[in-house]
Amino acid sequence: MSSGLDIALIQTRTPATARAALAHVEPLIREAASGGAKFILTPEGTNVLEQRRDRRDAAITTEDEDVAVLGLRRLAAELGVWLLIGSAIVRSGQAGDGRAANRSLLIDGSGGIVARYDKLHVFDVNLPNGETYRESATVRPGDGASVADTPWGRLGLTICYDIRFPHLHRQLAKAGASVIAVPAAFTAPTGEAHWETLLRARAIETGAFVLAPAQGGLHEDARRTWGRSTVVGPWGEIIAKADHDEPCIVRAKLDMEAVARARAAVPSLTHDRDFLPAV
């Protein structure tokens, strides 16, 4: 594992079709790579962001046929960078289940898919401002965690609402993840209240870098996302962040040795104890 890693988070306002989404994100990825980034991460819903069921169903296809996924794989190979498609909304392939998969795809420098992760926790909530979300109606949740080997160490994969489940992140860290990805399309109300606090908490608890590329602004389906893509260090410090919702690049250099230092200072990952459940 090298001691330094140049990374870039791509903040987007993804359109409602895969072709338009690719045209939106590709220039930002090219710019990030030209600036020296070796690992580039995009947000949740990189290939399409559309919550209206009929329009979403018309826009999505399988992972192997998705224009944005195929284009981003070719782009990673052309640029020679590792790329995390924070998530692509694709047909799940599960017989009898018309719901989609919300799937992270880790792409290596040859354009190959080296890891997949389907979002475990789906966003079913009634927000105080009257907004209602029922992600379970359109997205089939995954059934397993995912940690992938990279040239810089192990990467733990999560998506958006997963950030509220600390036990998942702890399992990723105990499986060797020194970096945890949190691609997101956070709602504006919850983002303003909780986004940074949750990201910093997960980093502190795991002693890992947390990389959180986000969607931002008002989308075609009328949802508004929070943006503020953020890089958090293993001691809980903010290393880099966007302070707005506009499409942009957030760059950082990660000192990978900081993970060992944080975990040595507070070795809580080694201090689990069995206990009786609360009643």
TrEMBL record:
<dbReference type="InterPro" id="IPR003010">
    <property type="entry name" value="C-N_Hydrolase"/>
</dbReference>
<dbReference type="InterPro" id="IPR045254">
    <property type="entry name" value="Nit1/2_C-N_Hydrolase"/>
</dbReference>
<dbReference type="Pfam" id="PF00795">
    <property type="entry name" value="CN_hydrolase"/>
</dbReference>
<dbReference type="InterPro" id="IPR001110">
    <property type="entry name" value="UPF0012_CS"/>
</dbReference>
<keyword id="KW-0378">Hydrolase</keyword>
<dbReference type="GO" id="GO:0016811">
    <property type="term" value="F:hydrolase activity, acting on carbon-nitrogen (but not peptide) bonds, in linear amides"/>
</dbReference>
<dbReference type="InterPro" id="IPR036526">
    <property type="entry name" value="C-N_Hydrolase_sf"/>
</dbReference>
<comment type="similarity">
    <text>Belongs to the carbon-nitrogen hydrolase superfamily. NIT1/NIT2 family.</text>
</comment>
<protein>
    <submittedName>
        <fullName>Carbon-nitrogen hydrolase family protein</fullName>
    </submittedName>
</protein>
<feature type="domain" description="CN hydrolase">
    <location>
        <begin position="5"/>
        <end position="256"/>
    </location>
</feature>
